[in-house]
Amino acid sequence: MNKVMKFYYTYIVLCADNSYYIGITNNLRKRIEQHNEGINRRSYTFKRRPVTLKWNIQCTNPEEAIKIEKQLKGWSRKKKEALIKENWQDLVRFSKNHTQFGKPE
Length: 105
Prior knowledge:
The protein has 5 helices and 3 strands; from the N terminus they run ββαβαααα. By secondary structure, it is of the alpha+beta class. The protein has a domain of about 70 residues: GIY-YIG endonuclease (3-Layer(aba) Sandwich), CATH 3.40.1440.10. It has a 3-stranded antiparallel sheet with strand order 2-1-3, sandwiched between helices. A hairpin with a 5-residue loop joins strand 1 and strand 2. It starts with 7 loop residues before the first strand and ends with a helix.
């Protein structure tokens, strides 16, 4: 019997108030639609609609998707934007510990 591979996505959306929301789902298209429909009044994105998908990564393991989500939530806005723009040089620069490496010039 063939087992169907299930995928999980960690994603970043840009909200109408210019903030970022990071989440995970197993159906990316449907989840973005749900954010924009405003299903849950208590959700972060409810009063910040519409949202626009800016970045996502596909995982085969839900634990990996959760790990990435938690990691991204700890990132600065500049670091998230470097990831979205695939600006690897800035991503590395914004990752450095300024107490160890000093402030960037």
